[in-house]
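Thought: the user wants the 3D structure for the chain below. I'll pass the sequence to the structure tool as-is, report back what it returns, then summarize two notable features.
Action: structure_tool
Action Input:
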Amino acid sequence: MKARHKRLGFLLVGLVVLGAAAWLVFNALGNNLSYFFSPTEVAENKAPANHVFRLGGLVQPGTLERGEKLTVHFDVTDNAHTVKVAYTGILPDLFKEGQGVIAQGRMGPDGVFVAEEVLAKHDENYMPPEVVDALEKGHQKGVADMAKGNKPL
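Observation:
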């Protein structure tokens, strides 16, 4: 075999190995991404049905229910739509009704968001920018719906 053919063989093998490594890296990154969605976007079916994502908004007052063991049920709202959430585990100390929250998990088949992790705001002045944007959009949509004579959900 000529030296030129050997170099070409090494080059092709190197390109295949590099391509496989790049595919593995991008595949791993894609599986670990979790996007943020507001309750309005979830109600409009913009959230993925079988993928982990983050749901953010305010814990609706009067909806916090403690079930058996460490299971907690509550509603997250952006003042336009509401999504029911179920979480099994210990809630953060700052978690309470009427406060900002981000829950990471998946939508269950029954339409309840099953959270794997719940994050509460960390002081009285902070709210994640995504939650602020979602609340503002939800408020604007609610005002627009009321102006049209529609009752908000």
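Final Answer: Structure generated. The helical segments are 3-32, 39-43, 129-148. The longest helix spans residues 3-32.
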